[in-house]
């Protein structure tokens, strides 16, 4: 069995976008996305410190295919910051789809970080929006509170988890992705590309069972 990882005061769990629209029946459903809820609830009990992210788009967001005449979901367009995948409408501010799953049970979460609320910039990462210039402030929050290691779980493995993990690593944090507490979309081989990127950046991928008692 792999060696156990002990969680301490300088560790934080980042739970990414466990919202209704990313689960079966939602506007941008990640296949089997609902399966992350139970393992994340268990995982969170091992952490004294947890941050939740919440996708939070205004109506008519740039990333919605419906905002571009004649375009369909999963097509791409070029915008001022590069290539943008067009998505079905999802996680619109104040709608039921944008809410956290009712069965997500992390009452001790210390911060809810909303992202994607700028109408003309999409936001996968919890640290930096897709223009790579608009920052969310999360890196400063984590540093100011003295955290050194960031664990990630949630939706989707190959988009918001991936970009959040990548940015956390580039901000100087140790990064661990709890892969069995994630699910992915897999657009054009994005799952394999994500694993390869994590290997390149020395981002560990583990299973939740590797996290032992403090």
Folded structure, characterized:
The chain has helices spanning 37-44, 138-144, 157-170, 190-200; strands at residues 5-6, 11-16, 50-55, 76-79, 82-85, 111-115, 149-155, 174-183, 204-206, 211-212. Helix 3 runs parallel beside helix 4. 19% of the residues lie in helices and 23% in strands. The strands form three sheets. Strands 6-3-2-7-8-9 form a six-stranded parallel β-sheet. The chain contains four helices and ten strands, in the order E-E-H-E-E-E-E-H-E-H-E-H-E-E. Strand 8, helix 4 (190-200) and strand 9 form a beta-alpha-beta unit. The chain is of the alpha/beta class and 214 residues long.
Key features of this structure:
214 residues; alpha/beta; 6-stranded parallel β-sheet; two-stranded parallel sheet; 23% strand
Short structural description:
It is built from 4 helices and 10 strands.
Order of strands side by side in the largest beta sheet?
A: 6-3-2-7-8-9
Q: If helices are DSSP runs of H or I spanning 4 or more residues, what is the number of helices?
A: 4
Low-confidence stretches: none
| Proportion in β-strands | 15-25%
Secondary-structure class: alpha/beta
Mean pLDDT: 95
Using DSSP, what is the number of strands?
A: 10
